[in-house]
User: Fold these one by one.
Assistant:
Number 1:
Amino acid sequence: MKVLVLCGGRSAEREVSCVSAQAVLKHLGRHAPVFVWIAPDGRWFHQADVRAFLAHPHPEKFRFARVPARLEPGLRPALKAGGKRIFVDAVFPVLHGPFGEDGTLQGLLEMIGLPYVGAGVLGSSVGMDKAVSKLLSLQAGLPILPYSVLEKGVACKDPLRPMGGSGRLPSRMRLPVFVKPARMGSSVGVYKVKKASELAKAVRKAFRFDTTVIIEQGVEAREIECAVLGGGPDVRASKAVGEIRPNAEFYSYEAKYLDPNGARLMIPAELGRAASEEVRCLSVQAFRALGGYGLARVDFLLDKRTGKLWFNEVNTLPGFTSISMYPKLWGASGVSFEKLVDKLLKLAVVRHREQVRLRITRD
């Protein structure tokens, strides 16, 4: 297949996206790459020389003739770059955060009529929106930590007072708490608050990234992660379960991507058989409840004091760098990076074929 690989985008996570795209391009195997970088202003640029990008995957470093590009619908959709029309068979959107992982791009690809890797419009938007995903997770019976939802511009004298959420939250949460934008990833805009005097500032800073902010009960916990792959009735969790051991108070953006000693990735995690199986079962349950398809990394918090396992979130387009947990978990489960990419592309085509068979007339 000719695979359109997208990276960059209108998100604070665009630099991480480029590193993920580099790894995907290296492991396309028998598939032919068509590469497009999306600028922060939303414009698309085609790069014919993929090797130049592979050598320098950071936007400020790679040099190439940025040929404006756009998708064209039709019986056989194509990418129009300069005066050329490049036909593509599937899309691998290696995009993290808003305008790539939140359903907006997925809606565009649905309209164009192209198969694409990952969850659909609804699953992508739900997975991205922590406020909505927590509500649905509670309905599905998943264990969720107490939380509050704050909307920008809505008066609230006590920012710890629950607003929205499940309606079952206590009147106040104890410190520490985590403050985070509702629709961001890679720990962008996440702050740990240990003093009441620091809360208002953390909320203001989180509002720079989103109009909705989550305040979540903090616990002293281990960060456990599991990878999910599949669609429809055939969904499975990775045999291996992983653990992130940050060398800071929590797994921040800096620890993930800037500090080479920011954290240790433990695969497999030091868990008993029963605990590992619980993580795997809850991962598939969360994947189905939130409309997942293709892939997801499911994150949990394991309370060090009580041993309670809390569902944290689903990442519908997790990091795909060479050190990212998702491909490493599947590698430890016997699925190579190249086989993983191939499987995801096949799943995208299967779903697309099922969709095009649906009737669009009343008779």
Number 2:
Amino acid sequence: MAATIKDIASRTGLGLATISSYLNGGNVREKNREKIEQAIQELNFEVNEVARGLKTNRTHTIGVVIPELNNIFCTEIITAMEDILRKKGYATIVCDCRTDKKLECEAVDFLYRKRVDGIINMPVDSTGKHLRQFAAAKKPIIIIDRKLPQLSCDSILVDNRDAARKAVDILIQSGHRRIGMITGPEDIYTAMERYQGYEAALANAGIAVDPGLVVHSDYTIRGAVAGVEHLLDEHPEVTALFAANYEMTMGTMIVLNERGISIPDQMSVIGFDNREFARALHPTLTIITQPTEAIARQAAETMLRRLEQTQSQEEGPQELYLQTEVMVGKSVRQLES
């Protein structure tokens, strides 16, 4: 015979009202939630999610749309977010749009039709048009790693200007003047911010910016390979490279390895993200590291807070900036003055 709500009450010692609140998506104390979930598992109690969703107008699912599932920055954030949301009873539906605006729009439309309670997006479309139906429905929208000025929503960001400035400052202080940068598309927020940090560091040192030393790629390994090859062919005088995301760091290292260019003797390099990759190289790579766990935690907690707020409690959109760090390796050479 199938277990009932009364069986859960008997097993946990909790009242029917508390158990009913949990089953219908209401808030219960953490210790009570744990008791109920353990009893549900032990009794093989089947929660009718469809009926619960119809009653509460909640599906307890969060949509996540990212540019590339094979991007280490994205996957680390998704993993940490899922852990936090799962503990609060929320499942996630993750969509990879392959850095394609049309696919991104289709993914968002799919999630809207699936009636997800909110959406977390690392957007490709900088206009935010693809999210308007979520905004019109007053469903929470959390943006990661980007800003969408035309859309009223929360943003979880890192200080990208400071990140690039720190990297380029290290190279300048080591005597480098011809510093190449491999960054993302000019219309992507992170790429613009990181380029501005590169530009600011050079300006502070009295070094003129040479546009020919800046490669605007597509934040992919393949794009970086093509861009770095072109940069080195056109500007063999370059003594240092700064790659402004992990995939482009990989692409940069592939080109240098295939051309037999010694690091740091013939080329100094600073990359972005993935501590394990940086440590596995010989010599170890100096990189800018982003606080992926903090980004994930802030995105998940902001989503949960928005879902729990009543209309009268709602605050305006928040922008949260997190700081990057430098992990020093042995990939930068001190030039003789």
Number 3:
Amino acid sequence: MDGRERTKVTDMEPNLDSLKIKIFGDGADRKAMVDLYRNPRIKGFTTNPTLMRKDGVGDYERFAREVLDVIRDRPISFEVLSDDMDDMERQARKIASWGENANVKIPITNTRRVSSMPLVGRLARDGIKVNVTGVTTLDQVTAAGEALAQGRAFSIVSVFGGRIADTGRDPVPMMAAAAQTLRPLAHVELLWASPRELLNIFQADAVGCHIITVTADILKKLPLVGKDLDQYSLETVQMFRDDAVKAGYVL
């Protein structure tokens, strides 16, 4: 996708109903997840230890099982905790046993840069639904695809588009290339992780991502999609004026 094509994407009148991409809720607040479950636009969920710690989760397994007891028909990804490959495998098989819709998040490497793809291959061959996470390069996408190709169970490759953008790099061309790399694998879906703005949903859809994870803060902005920009301008001006009056500023 070149610059001119990206301009066309961002200049189009946005329409949520035209999206093909699946929106997954991203977080670890049980009540919020259950509330989102009632929204037909939300097709699945992801979480991770950082989000769980942020939301005050104390018992990892209890939290996961309570969520899975309510949300039974949409995929939910839970991450292994260990840094040791053998223990990661034990944890992965345990998580997979919690429910048919439980996907197991396996990081692309451990903290010592040891590839976890041999483990992913074994899990894939045994029919475990894997979500390869922490991916930021095309080489990693290729490696994940090769490992997941050893099985046929529904699987995900999570590429952290937001973190790529945080480094000053445009994630859109890479996500487009990742989509092409994984296209031959019908059972593997590309997920745009860590979006930074609502626009990322439309960008991810345009380049062929299957899924995007969206936090509660971004989900709150969905009603803004397609909003009249002249009206938005007026509301912005009104906000500045109201705040100046409330603050009692004078010149």
Number 4:
Amino acid sequence: MLGHRLPSGRGATEQPNAAGDAETPLTATFWLLVVATGVAAGLLGVLMMWLLNGVIRLAYGAHRGSFVHVVQDDSAVRRLVVLVIAGAVAGVCWFWLRRITAGERSDLDDQLWTGDGSLSFRRSLGTSVLSEFVVGAGASLGREAAPKLMGGAVASWLATWRGLTPPQRRLLVACGAGAGMGAVYNVPLGGALITAELLYGSLTLPVILPALACSWIATAVSWIYLPNTATYNDIPSYRLRTTLVVFAVVVGPLIGLLSVGYIRLIGWVSHYRATGRYLLLAPLLAFGILGTIALAYPQVLGNGQDLAHAAFVSRGRETFQFVLVLLMLKPLVTAMCLGSGVTGGLFTPTLSTGAVLGVLLGKLWVLAWPGSPVGAFAIVASAAMIGAAMQTPLAALALIIELTRTTDALVVPMIAATVLATIVARYLDGYSIYSSRLPAAGAVERKEGADEPGGERL
């Protein structure tokens, strides 16, 4: 705004990260829409979490405590019945939603990366409601998909209303989606980095500023209903030890290798997932199988938050067999739920898979080099798994620190494991759990209302 250069005569925007907004000007109108998007994303996040909690109360009664404790308090038969009913209802509802809204877009990642960011609000709302419905019933999918999609959808509507340019709309939609995730997990920094690093693909100042503003506004608004505490409470303040740093260097590449297999599994089931009239039966079958598995292992139900929490506080008393079975089951049932044609998130299922892997590797590690609790290894492994699977190392580290609020002392081994795992995943394969779910190039939605292979990717 000042009319004169400094005595050096150099340009004001020669710092690389401070430039880059020529195509996406941050006008006064854009900033007003950032504020409006933040408020709306926070309120919609509250609505989605209220709906999720209502489904849990309806399905399993009024209980206190974690989701796993809630479902364990009920009979195994009731868990199976709830899941079968949820599968039957969800299949019919998704079939008709996709039929009625044929041609409308709610594929957030695809629209941001290859489109202009336009999203159908009514299809996004229907998808989000159904997503929280199946997660509340116990589907092995993430709860963040709905608020993430709704934050993007309301941003798309606001951008169209005010006539923003396509680049401005893309940035605003990315901000809204990251803010929605940040709000429901109380991770404003993580939400902003999801916007910049994952959804928009730039860490320049013109991207980071609106991303941070939108995320903190949404998070603050969400406190009218959601707690302003860490998602994972009571995590010990683990001490940094040499054994953890060496562990991170040794197992980081292994976690990257395993994440590639996980990503490929997600990509395969996303491409071949049930569509069209198969939707009427596939969720019923998948949820019935999930309920049968949960008769013996109820820990696989839900998004995996309780599974990750148990891993983070683990002292290594679990048997190898039990941990190994959970490590195999969690990604498989998550893939099965996706393959049935329903929609949900992958963040927490991925995090919990990494945490359980950390428990297994940590139990083996302390046999040779004791000195750290197994829970510390779980935290390091979960950060590496998220970073590699999402191809977002910065967001992964910020999310783990914000989700726990007590793990900053482990930042060096977390960085080491995350960097090495992400490098291996990037150069061995290159896909992420989000890019692997993109539809086939040129796929067209069929007239009967079935999605192109993969449907909504959240």
